[in-house]
Amino acid sequence: MVYDPTQPPIGDNVNTANLETLAQPYPQVVAGTPNSWSFDNGVFQFSYSTEHADGTGAFAAGSQTTISVPTVEFPSGYQVTVTGGEVISAPNAPALIIASNAGATAVSVTVSPAATG
User: How many CA atoms lie within 13 Å of 100's alpha carbon, on the beta-carbon side?
Assistant: First the structure.
């Protein structure tokens, strides 16, 4: 993706076509147990249980999950729909942070391109 590793990864030193092909959103840190995620036709979907993977209980309300959202995939920004939690990061942040709601046993997140108009 970078033509000359001795130079900064900007401008003509980046193979933008490869970057656009390989970059995609993904969960970086999950306050729970992932159920599924996908990235298809510019829409990222992710769902997870708030339970600990070892079955010893649930993460506390407000526990944070971080999702990487590459700018190259959403150059005009993105919109987020969340069930069981809320967005606490800044709009269009490259690190989307979701805090779980009190009483939520599952969280679902959908990231799609920002509405234009």
Answer: 23
The structural architecture, per CATH, of the domain 25-113 is Sandwich (2.60)
pLDDT along the chain (117 residues), means of 10: 84 79 91 95 95 91 96 94 98 98 96 88
The C-alpha atoms of residue 73 and residue 61 are separated, in whole angstroms, by 30
CA nearest to 84, candidates 64, 57, 103: 103
Take residue 2 and report the two structure tokens written for it.
């970078």
Q: Sign of the CA dihedral 101, 59, 63, 48?
A: negative
pTM of structure: 0.86
